[in-house]
Amino acid sequence: MKSLICLVLLSLNAHALENNFKGKWSGSGKKIFNLKTEECEKIFMHLEFYESKFYIVSGGYKCGSLEANYPFSDFTIGEYGVLTHAGKRVGHIDKNQIMIEDEDAGFSLFLILKNNQLQYIEEWVTDTTPFIITGNLDK
Predict the structure, then answer these.
(1) Which of 1, 71, 102, 134 has the fewest CB atoms nearer than 10 Å to its CB?
(2) CA distance linking residue 51 with residue 3, whole number of Å
(3) Percent of the chain scored above 90 by pLDDT?
(4) Which helix (H) or strand (E) holds 10?
(5) pLDDT in tens, 21-56
(6) Overall number of domains in the chain
(7) 95-138: per-residue pLDDT in tens?
(8) Who's near 47: CB < 8 A, 6+ residues apart?
(9) CATH code of 27's domain
């Protein structure tokens, strides 16, 4: 019985995450680098869920002449919202936030649900100065 209750709670939790984050998000924002700010005319994310998996189907940004795209990435959602990729712990997910990081590369991605928008924050920390992309995305 205890196992069944845990399974039901995990299913409900995964369903809540899916309803909150799932879909195609797009918007605009800013790039901050070397104490200069530049407009990002396009920021987008396509997020999906299936059972205990979370997927970045696509994503990226265009900030002036700078463009970048996320490759398809799959993550396993573990106990307490721990995200793993290729067997390595890489972040956390809950009903309002997704955090993915690679400490070795100095990379962090925060996706925060607030007022029916997805706040996008991508940070790259280098030896000299941080590189930051921020924006607000709508479905």
Answers:
(1) 1
(2) 17
(3) 75
(4) helix 2-21
(5) 999 999 999 999 988 999 999 999 999 999 899 999
(6) 1
(7) 999 999 998 889 999 999 998 999 999 999 977 789 999 999 99
(8) 21, 22, 23, 25, 54, 55, 56, 57, 111
(9) 2.40.128.120
Q: Is 115 left (phi over 0), alpha (psi -120 to 50) or beta?
A: left
Residues 8, 16 contacting (CB under 8 angstroms): no
Q: For residue 44, which of 66, 18, 23, 64 has the smallest C-alpha distance?
A: 23
> Taking the CB of residue 126, how many other CB atoms lie within 10 A of it?
9
Alpha-carbon span 21 to 96, nearest angstrom: 8
Q: Distance between CA 55 and CA 53 in Å, rounded? A: 7
| 54: CB partners within 8 A, 6+ apart | 17, 21, 47, 48, 74, 75, 76, 77, 83, 93, 98
Distance separating alpha carbons of residues 21 and 97, to the nearest angstrom: 9
Give the domain range for residue 66: 2-138
E-assigned strands of the chain?
A: 23-33, 36-50, 53-63, 66-70, 73-77, 82-85, 88-93, 97-102, 107-114, 117-125, 130-138
Higher pLDDT, 74 or 17: 74
